[in-house]
Amino acid sequence: MANPVAVTYGQSHQTSQCSVSPFCLLPIAYCLLPLAYCLLPIASCLLPLASCLLLLASYLFIQIKN
């Protein structure tokens, strides 16, 4: 039989952890937000390059397969 004290403690601990976690993540999000804005132009620049490379890779793969 499970210890009722341990079970209730586990449940209360879990709920408190859930309520605290967003507040812990908030400063991290605020810290990462400028970084995301900084990386956004780089990402938008790399996206066409990635799609171009993907097309080239698929073309080469088809050529090699045949």
Q: Could you explain the architecture of this structure?
A:
The protein is mainly α and 66 residues long. It contains one helix and no strands. It has one helix at 4-65. The model has no long low-confidence stretch (mean pLDDT 76).
Brief synopsis:
The protein is 94% helix and 0% strand.
Features:
about 70 residues, mainly alpha
Give the topology.
Elements: H1 4-65
Beta-strand percentage range? under 5%
The mean pLDDT is: 76
Shape by Cα distribution: elongated
Radius of gyration: 24 Å
Taking the alpha carbons of the first and last residues, their distance comes to 65 Å
Main sheet attributes: strand count, strand direction, barrel closure? none
Count of DSSP strands: 0
Which regions are unreliable across 5 or more consecutive residues at pLDDT < 50?
Answer: none
Structural class determined from secondary elements: mainly alpha
Query: How do the SSEs run, as a string of H and E?
Result: H
